[in-house]
């Protein structure tokens, strides 16, 4: 499956897109006289969007998914040969529009990776992430990760780059030669992405002991209030990430990648 096709599938499962397609179907059904089916399509679309954009209904599901791989205190982690930081949190430079690298919502991955190195958990860190084919003018994400790590105080000779991968599967396969002969690796990625990452890495490199260090937690306990029943864009975005991971795992199982 191409990178572009996988991205298209991820877009289709976005609750907002799904609802829009459902409403479009409702309009078409009404136009041909199938009013009952049109009403059903419109109701299902609206309820689907409300469910995934409302904290009361969406957060328990998303939170349970994240807590399958809860974050760990750095002091409790065992020593390892490498820290592996998966891309997805930074944006590479793209002159003349973007003159320098910029932090994205999951830049916590690089921050935690740097903290692990500075704490002496491992002597080296491998940062993995390239540029997507439709962003050809953008520098590989690993370049941005290197820049951020250096700004956080990690020595340049402790950082190794893998700059070609564009998917979780490629993160693993392209990192494998660099991690050959390694006994234990600490994996750093967002909590919602850890399940697919760990299963993929174990499939590609079964002889390595993998220990997850999650970050970028989206769902935290909060007091019940009327606001929990009102849709908001942040919950909708978190739901999109969750559904994308679920679809991604299904595709990886189908392809025998996990």
From TrEMBL:
Pfam families (UniProt xref): DUF218 (PF02698)
Domain DUF218: 81-248
InterPro entries found in the cross-reference section: Cell_Envelope_Assoc, DUF218, Rossmann-like_a/b/a_fold
Entry's Gene Ontology cellular component terms: plasma membrane
The entry's keywords: Membrane, Transmembrane, Transmembrane helix
Domain of life: Bacteria
Membrane-crossing segments per the record: 12-29
GO terms, biological process: Gram-negative-bacterium-type cell wall biogenesis; peptidoglycan metabolic process
Name of protein: YdcF family protein
Naturally occurring in which organism (per UniProt): Litorivicinus lipolyticus
Species classification: Bacteria, Pseudomonadati, Pseudomonadota, Gammaproteobacteria, Oceanospirillales
